[in-house]
Design goal:
By secondary structure, this protein is mainly α. The protein has 15 helices and no strands. α8 crosses α9. The longest helix has 47 residues.
Length: 324
């Protein structure tokens, strides 16, 4: 009964923390109001911030306290909605969060309440299987979508360049991309074309799409078109050069991935080896591994070993990642 009460308190605190951290504070509302006023005055939403805006945003982050920094790795509702859209998942952010809370709570209840294991063990397993693993899979789907998009994006830019050189306006060239190329480029540019049909300007449609995709390459594309429309210039030449740069970035990324493949393979082998050994010893001599699960000293040793292995794998992963 005590475990059930503790689990219920944990669920309430988790939901309360999610609501508080995703809700808008008074300073957040003020910052958004300033942004809306700037837009009505004709300024770009992505223009450089003034010192007062920077000070206000810094105070907003400071006011959120330690809970903000604990929950910072988790995406907010807007970012989560963009990730779900890129992963082509038919769920709203609130539905996703609610399912994760329910699934995590059920795992904690089954492990701690039904099986009679320690509460800390149930909480760790519940957070891993109910929260961390679904977010990891969601981010992997988003990365897969981004890689597929970047593979075809230079071809889309070349198609826009050919349309511009044949006399078509930019908006018609974007519609041409949505008709000729395959997914996921077709879906992104179809969304831009449909947004413009509703009366939204090209600049605004591109900016909103760039915020959803979170890709440096698409930000280059958006900035090039916006600057050309404001200052003038040969847009076809600008986009042609951008296409060459993006292809060079993609080739460089593939070269780096090939050069770091040995280190990544070593990380996979080292990370899988402890689990293989534990499984083999558990089958051959089950009593040998029993103190790790039944004795509190064994629990401490297992936790320390898992933490050290996780930290080592994180270091190896950081060593094989390069920013281009």
């Amino acid at each position: 009964m005590t475990n059930i009460i503790i689990i219920l308190i944990f669920i309430v605190l988790l939901i309360a923390g999610a609501v508080l951290l995703t809700g808008e504070s008074e300073r957040d509302v003020t910052v958004k109001r300033i942004d809306r006023i700037k837009k009505r005055k004709g300024g770009l939403s992505d223009s450089p911030l003034s010192m007062s805006d920077l000070s206000l945003r810094r105070k907003t982050v400071e006011a959120k306290g330690i809970a903000y920094w604990i929950m910072k790795p988790l995406p907010d509702f807007k970012t989560l909605g963009d990730m779900l859209e890129r992963a082509e998942t038919k769920m709203t952010p609130k539905q996703f969060v609610l399912r994760r809370v329910i699934f995590t709570s059920v795992i904690i209840f089954l492990i701690s309440g039904v099986l009679g294991k320690k509460l800390i063990f149930g909480v760790v397993i519940g957070l891993l299987l109910g929260t961390w693993l679904p977010l990891k899979l969601l981010r992997r789907k988003c990365d897969k979508h981004s890689k597929a998009f970047l593979r075809l994006f230079p071809d889309a830019i070349d198609l826009i360049v050919r349309g511009l050189r044949s006399g078509l306006p930019v908006s018609e060239s974007l519609v041409l991309v949505s008709q000729e190329l395959s997914e996921p480029v077709r879906g992104v540019f179809s969304n831009i074309a449909n947004t413009m049909k509703l009366g939204v300007s090209l600049e605004k449609a591109l900016q909103e799409t760039a915020k959803k995709l979170h890709m440096t390459e698409f930000n280059f594309f958006t900035t090039s078109i916006i600057l050309q429309r404001e200052t003038g210039g040969n847009l076809a030449e600008i986009l042609s050069n951008l296409s060459d740069v993006l292809r060079s970035r993609f080739i460089m990324r593939m070269k780096i991935r090939a050069m770091s493949s040995e280190a990544r393979a070593s990380a996979y082998i080292i990370g899988a080896l402890p689990f293989v050994v534990i499984g083999a010893v558990g089958i051959i001599s089950p009593d040998y591994m029993t103190p790790l699960w039944t004795d509190h000293r064994g629990n401490i040793c297992a936790g320390v070993a898992a933490g050290m292995m996780t930290f080592g794998l994180w270091i190896m992963r950081r060593m094989t990642q390069f920013e281009i």
